[in-house]
Design brief:
InterPro entries: Transgly_assoc. It contains 3 helices and no strands. It is mainly alpha-helical and 81 residues long. The protein has a domain of 28 residues. Helix 1 packs across helix 2 and helix 1 packs across helix 3.
Length: 81
């Protein structure tokens, strides 16, 4: 059950990150994948900063922040290539 919730939160975070980063999205399915990876990145970044989040909303915020950062990095790399 936790895996399903993780995928749902990651998918919503990727969708939100695609909306936040106008013009930086890569389509619905790719943004969902970026959201799942971004949730891992967000958790890592928050732990480095000493921040923590609790509950579903906290997980969604963490995942969205990670997905936005990931979309930004991918956009920079894609622009240079």
């Amino acid at each position: 059950m936790n895996l399903i919730l993780f995928l749902i939160i990651g998918g919503v975070a990727g969708w939100l990150a695609g909306l936040i980063m106008k013009g930086r999205g890569f389509g619905v399915l790719a943004n969902i994948g970026i959201g799942v990876v971004g949730s891992l990145l967000g958790g890592f970044m928050f732990s480095l900063l000493g921040l923590s989040s609790h509950g579903t909303i906290g997980a969604l915020v963490t995942a969205t922040v990670g997905a936005v950062v990931l979309l930004w990095v991918v956009g920079v790399i894609k622009k240079k290539a």
